[in-house]
Design brief:
Blueprint: E1 7-12, H1 28-34, H2 43-59, H3 73-84, H4 86-106, E2 111-121, E3 124-135, H5 136-145, E4 156-161, H6 167-174, E5 179-180, E6 189-190, E7 202-206, E8 209-216, E9 223-225, H7 229-233, E10 239-243, H8 254-268, E11 272-276, H9 285-296, E12 303-307, H10 318-327, H11 333-336, E13 340-343, H12 347-351, H13 356-360, E14 367-371
Parallel strand pairs: 1-4, 1-11, 4-7, 5-7, 6-9, 11-12, 12-13
Antiparallel strand pairs: 2-3, 2-14, 8-9, 8-10
Helix pairs in contact: 2-4, 3-4, 5-6, 8-9
Amino acid sequence: MKPELDHNVYILGAGFSFDAGLPLVNDFLERMGDCLDSDSLNQRSRMAISKVFEFRLKAAAAAYRAKLNVENIEELFSLASALEGESASEYISTAIAATLDTISRSKRIPEFTITVFGNTVPGVTQTVRNPRRIPLYQLYSEILTGNVTGKDYSTKNSFITFNYDTLLEDGLHGAGIPFTYGIPETFVSYEHEKCTKDGSGVPVYKLHCSVNLIIDRISKNNMKIYDCFDWVKDREEMERVLIVPPTWRKTFAEQLGFIWEGAVRALRHATRVFVLGFSMPPTDTHFKYLLTAGLQDNISLRKFFFVNPGLQDESMGESTRLRENLFAILRPELEDRKIIELLPQKTMEFLLDTKNRQALHRSPSFQVVISPDPFETDYSTRRL
């Protein structure tokens, strides 16, 4: 085996999507309830959301005896899947997708003008890339892949994401960066897609699937990939959105097996792992074994970055909880050996900080100037 010298693997959670105004896990149900008054919901989505709240009311009885947070959408999803099986997965998946779609329509993704400077001539700072205006998640995608300077670097990148939205894919597509979901064309139909069909490009492994993935209602096997949820809404009589809960009842269609195998393979060859906005909750036991399986044969790992703003929150025990989640999977002595590094930062703080490009291994000599100042406004609360 030969070590991989420059392969970044990014593990993304709900915190990565926060700057687009999308909800975190703990406030997802509250935001879902707010969507019931939206005119953009169709009848099927409205009924699905109502069924979620009916189930939450019933689930409250279980919380009297078991440690269950019925306000946490993923714990509720897991319980519903255990009790009601496929029927629960269908209406909760529809409710989640409709919530994300409705919220996305009420938010404006901020745009920034960026200019890149560098010392291409010794001692002289020059413009490397002229000013251009791009959406925030395209900027994130370009920083993470090293594309922000317009140079073709040899760094390999892979994304493992638990998010149901398509913010990352939209950013990659806007930047002209090819990406793949890792499912061979013979196992899925590509329709109106933004990803490549031939498996080329940056791998994006969506472990809990996505609002733009659908499965046939009758055969429960034929999978299609669209570019957004709009196409799914138009076909809900015959097809349903494919979202998989982090639950012990999780079943794998053949297509999903390719996604998880690809994620394990990426971790096996990772030089650096970045966990952004993901708390590594103990409820997702599959992730524990995915990470373990991937790192088991890894001879390349140099750094493991755990980036989460909750690491600085001692008032409610959030920092302690996050550390417990992390070190329930990884060995604590790796922190002493400086392999694991905990960074109490939001996604925006981490990605737009110049010195963090050294951690990303992205040519720190280049300076990216962004205007307006992205830290001046809480963009997650800005509405249309």
